[in-house]
Amino acid sequence: MTKTNQWSVLIIDDEADIREVTSLTLLDAGYTVETAANGAEGLDLCEQFKPKIVITDVRMPVMDGIQVLETIKKRFPDTEVIVATAYGEMDIAIRALQLDASDFITKPMHTEALIVALERAKHRSLTRQQLKDYTRQLEQGLSRTTKQLEETVAYQKRLIESSMDGILGCDINDKVVTFNKSMEKMLGLDRSEVLHQAALSTFFSDEEYFRLREALAASSHGGKGILMLYETFFLDRGKQPVPVQLSAALLMDEKKPAGLVCFVRDLRRIHRLEQEMANQAELLHQDKMMSLGRLAASVAHEINNPLAGILNYIRLMLRTVNKGPLPQNKHDQFAQYLTTVEAETDRCSKIVSNLLTFSRRTRVSMEPVCISEILDRSILLAGHKLELGNIKLTTSIPNQLPCVVGDGNQLQQCLLNLIFNSVDAMPNGGNLTITATSKDNLETVIVQVSDTGHGINEEALSHIFEPFYTTKQEGHGIGLGLSTTYGIIEHHGGTLTARSLPGESTTFEIRLPVRKATP
Ligand SMILES: Nc1ncnc2c1ncn2[C@@H]1O[C@H](COP(=O)(O)OP(=O)(O)OP(=O)(O)O)[C@@H](O)[C@H]1O
Ligand SMILES: [Mg+2]
Description:
By secondary structure, this protein is of the alpha/beta class. It has helices at about 15-30, 40-50, 65-75, 90-100, 110-160, 180-185, 205-215, 270-320, 330-360, 370-390, 410-425, 460, 480-490, and strands at about 10, 30-35, 55, 80-85, 105, 165-170, 175-180, 225-235, 240-255, 255-265, 365-370, 390-395, 405, 430-440, 445-450, 495-500, 505-515. The longest helix has about 55 residues, at about 270-320.
């Protein structure tokens, strides 16, 4: 027997005696009991007191038991109703059961029959409750699963949509079922005109489609039913070929083919970049050939003059020598010729060696170099020239400058080039200032060579670092000093810049990085 004390029962009967007897019996059995004398009162109590079981008499004035049953089942469907009928009212009993009464019991009520009917009602109520709980649990579980499923589907949709690669999926009949945004963009097609309508073959020329199917069937592109990085052409809206790289796989559903999925990468941009690079490389090559041509022409010109001179003198001397023994008076003349030949040969050799430095083909020794020492040495070497040129030198060279790694001889050549240029720019004398400093937390050494010479105008300033650019008279400059210096400084990881106030002053600045010496 189920515990009865939490079970509340409402008895509706118009006969006071029956109400009293029945309630006493039920109280004895441990039920909580309320009573009502008619249907309306009974329904009010149902509202307030929410009984789990109602026992109602059928024959009552105003509202009979069947009406009470109907109303309770409508308004409180979880309440169990036991109908009390008079003996022989089988049709009413059947009607009551049809209206979902849990039981009927005949009057006069037997205590045992009443208790059994109540037990059945309780069982029905419990079963109904359990069913309800179970249904609720099922519903909750279902809604959770549905939500998870919806989230997963939405996530996968987003994944497909946001892919940079085009994604195209077909069903077993080759009809397109997935066509993401990138595909739309790539082919200029809207998915609404493609999905469930277009077949995969419509995106290819006959030839390309045949090739694709063959490649899929073969195992040459990553295995049977797989295409890895396969290059082909899609057809866009206007049936124009779009070069693509395709990775595709046959979809299987329990070992049966179910469709095909393709990941498509548009190759147009890559092809364009490749073409641009090829064009650029071609241009660079042409440019290089042109500067090489210009350089060769300049070298030929520069070397041709001294060579012509040398050749003339040698021919002259040969002619004299071939005539017979050399007379004494020709000795001095020959010595003079040979001096000129030596000077011109020297000039040729200088041009060649400077050119080699410029193109950085000579071997250089990189070792820690103390810039202040190099500056002192250069100033010493140029001292005589400065004195002759009536040039006042001012220096500011701290002893504690950090060392740079480089080739001392080359760096000295650079400084001498700058100093000699300054001397040349001040034919009537002037001031030369040489300063050295370190910057950027001792990571850069800066050397400045300034003069109060004739300066360089803007047009000339854009050419001074070009090989063979010179404004000097023939025999006074080749035009290789600054280009050589530029090449050397660049090779040391530094920079060479110039600024000038034409007619007033010029400053050249060398910046060299301070690097740790490597063994
Ligand atoms: N300090 C300077 N002041 C004015 N002009 C300068 C100065 N330094 C260089 N130039 C200009 O730059 C040109 C190129 O200099 P660069 O040293 O390369 O060649 P160059 O001195 O003419 O010949 P070289 O090969 O003998 O050095 C010079 O001809 C001159 O016009
Ligand atoms: Mg020079």
